[in-house]
Specification:
CATH topology: Methylamine Dehydrogenase, Chain H
CATH class: Mainly Beta
Order of helices and strands: HEEEEEEEEEEEEEEEEEEEHEEEEEEEEE
Pfam families: DUF1513
Organism: Halomonas litopenaei
Radius of gyration: 20 Å
InterPro entries: Quino_amine_DH_bsu, TAT_signal, UCP028101, WD40/YVTN_repeat-like_dom_sf
Number of domains: 1
Protein name: DUF1513 domain-containing protein
Number of strands: 28
Oligomer: single chain
Largest sheet: 4 strands, antiparallel
CATH architecture: 7 Propeller
Strand order of the largest sheet: 3-2-1-28
Strand content: 35-45%
Length: about 400
């Protein structure tokens, strides 16, 4: 439901790679069930020869995400933009974010933090082809991004012994071999993106220390030091460090607009009753950094938590999901003006649909579309639990 409909739409204002068969390692019953589900999904969709296929408007037809089924099984998934079809590939663990490899029919999906692997999918064959393990004494944080050539993959990671945050560099042309690190002088890098110049990485540094022996427990809430970082992808030199207004505002997710505007989402780690801290930050092309508190009572309804951030590639807007508050917000990308808000239960992944609107997935299996006129409708309801990101 739209609470504030805009009448004018959005246009205003080093471990070697190994080939794996994750299905073969499952118990026979689970293996049969997952293979059946995957094959049924493939049969139902009528998949094209390549999932990179574009429609008549030049937009990609397929999105990718991590999902769980109703039995708790983990999968890597493909989803048609119109919600009319999907496929599933079994995964040995729960995954999180992903990225497309430029110039190739490949998708990379990353294990959820503290993750030990990332998975390379051949989109043309609808198959998982590589499973890359974290180096000894490291774990991943669930996100990565390619350089424009498609050769270099940059992955957020943690050096476990001293909790140093890293961006690991992997060479996709050499089986995704780990070839180097950029040290971030900080803890808990999460989502990473690439600026339009193709040379500058942007990292959401969450500031939260974790350790695989403690699972997802947060070990340093009293002395967190989060930031939004910009760094040279070649040298690793940190060019900018923007700290949030409160040390417990964990900078977690981001997206980058074609003009270089960065929109970031926070998750507040302090007391539950403190609901007036900003949850959205913005770094504009001129280098200025600002934060935004939303109008009351909307600010309090977000439960101190944002998840996926998506900027439109064709409109000056950005969308942010707040699954704990059951909300999706659409904002003016530069002004921060609230254009619309939608009540979508457990809203998870959000991504630009290439036509001025957004595709939204939920933790209850629904797929929604918000169009460029501010209208919202459900495309599908599936027996799946979508993770917080769409690729």
């Amino acid at each position: 439901m739209i609470r504030s409909p805009p009448p004018w739409g959005w246009s205003r204002a080093s471990i070697p790679a190994t080939e794996t068969d994750p299905v073969a390692s499952l118990p026979s019953l689970s293996r049969r069930r997952l293979l059946k589900a995957s094959l049924l999904g493939l049969a139902a969709t009528g998949l094209p020869a390549s999932l990179w296929a574009l429609d008549d408007d030049g937009r990609r037809q397929w999105y990718f995400s991590a999902v769980d089924d109703s039995d708790g099984g983990h999968h890597l998934a493909g989803l048609r933009r119109d919600g009319a079809g999907h496929f599933l590939l079994p995964s040995p663990e729960r995954c999180h974010g992903g990225c497309l490899r430029p110039g190739r029919d490949e998708v990379v999906l990353f294990a959820r933090r503290p993750g030990q692997r990332f998975h390379v999918l051949d989109a043309r064959r609808q198959a998982s082809t590589l499973e890359i393990s974290a180096s000894q004494g490291r774990h991943f944080y669930g996100h990565g991004v390619f350089d424009p050539s498609g050769r270099w993959l940059y992955v957020t990671a943690n050096r476990i012994d001293d909790a140093m945050g890293l961006v690991q560099v992997h060479d996709a042309e050499q089986g995704y071999r780990h070839v180097g690190d950029h040290l971030l002088d900080g803890i808990g890098p999460h989502e990473v993106g690439l600026m339009p110049d193709g040379e500058t990485l942007v990292v959401a540094l969450g500031g939260i220390r974790t350790h695989p022996d403690s699972g997802r427990a947060k070990l340093n809430l009293s002395d967190m030091d989060p930031a939004l970082l910009l760094l040279d992808r070649h040298s690793g030199e940190i060019l900018e460090r923007h700290r949030p207004s409160h040390h417990q505002l964990s900078c977690r997710h981001l997206d980058i607009a074609p003009d270089g505007t960065v929109v970031a989402g926070y998750q507040f780690q302090g007391p539950e009753w403190e609901t007036d801290h900003p949850l959205i930050a913005r770094r504009t092309p001129d280098g200025s950094f600002s934060e935004q508190v939303l109008p009351s009572p909307l600010q309090g309804r977000l439960a101190q938590y944002t998840a996926s951030v998506a900027t439109s590639q064709v409109r000056p807007s950005a969308a942010i999901s707040a699954p704990r508050g059951n909300k999706v917000l659409v904002l003016g990308r530069t002004s921060g003006e609230l254009l619309a808000q939608f009540d979508i239960e457990d809203a998870a992944g959000v991504r630009c649909d290439g036509a001025g609107g957004y595709l939204v997935t939920t933790g209850s299996g629904e797929v929604h579309r918000i169009d460029d006129g501010g209208r919202h409708h459900q495309l599908a309801a599936l027996p799946l639990r979508w993770d917080n990101h769409l690729t």
